[in-house]
Amino acid sequence: MRALLALLLVLAAPLPAAAERLVSKVSRDEVAITSSYTGETLTLFGSIEPEAGSTAKFVEGPFHIIITVTGPTADRVTRQKSSVFGIWLNTAEAEFAHFPTLYQVLSDAKLSDITDPVTLAKYRIPLISQAYATSKAGWWNTIAFSHETVRLMEKSGRMKLNEQGVVFHSDTFYSAQAVVPADAVPGLYIAHTYLFKNGLLIAEKSDGFTVRKIGFERFLGQAAQEQPLLYGLVCVMLALFTGWLGGVVFKR
User: Fold this and answer.
1) Backbone angles phi, psi at 8, to 5 degrees
2) In terms of DSSP bridges, do strands 103-107 and 159-162 run parallel, antiparallel, or are they unpaired?
3) Class (C level, CATH) for 19-213
4) What are the pLDDT digits (tens) for 115-155?
5) Alpha carbon distance 121, 132 (integer Å)
6) Cα separation of 146 and 95, whole Å?
7) Closest of 38, 31, 35 to residue 217, by C-alpha
8) Rounded CA gap, 70 and 104, in Å?
9) What pTM does this model have?
10) In angstroms, rounded to a whole number, what is the distance separating the alpha carbons of residues 101 and 154?
């Protein structure tokens, strides 16, 4: 009875706080899209320090870092084309709700060497996990279309896995570089850092940055969304005027 009571007291006791914490930062809080914008490379960096209030003066590794960069989400439909009597038609499709328009995974080692597949899937770290988690199709179409969707996203540069993307400059200081492509969707982007030790997740932290249009590009984007009819009419008038002006110039 005493042994059982002692065991219950041990189980009820609060678990010790994690000894490590992440201090991370993104090199820029905002990426501005202008007429000359061709893409941007951001530096993600940070250090591993003792937990606030801890008496420890340093931390002991080895540590592993995984960083995911997630862009704004949008509904996406992937369609399969098949030849029907010599005509290519859409014969099947799968819808993905709130699918990230950009998703990058950066790590200092192979994901399989950092932690187990169950943990990776739990936190939706692998590229394929984004498709599995957002699919609204049945299980068969989810499997078939998810891999194809990820392949197409990788081909377009919207999805990327770089298992050498994080570099440790010391035992506790790291950095990585994330590429924001030229066709990046404006909105909020989240860089989420996971800290692993001995295969276990011991700390995590999120940092955000925004991608937005400025100047005339921002005006055009807002006009197209807020006044689509007027925007369309102006575009048609400009096209007619440009065609007329070109005819006059070349006629001379």
Assistant:
1) -65, -40
2) parallel
3) mainly beta
4) 999 999 999 999 999 999 988 877 887 888 899 999 999 99
5) 10
6) 10
7) 35
8) 7
9) 0.75
10) 11
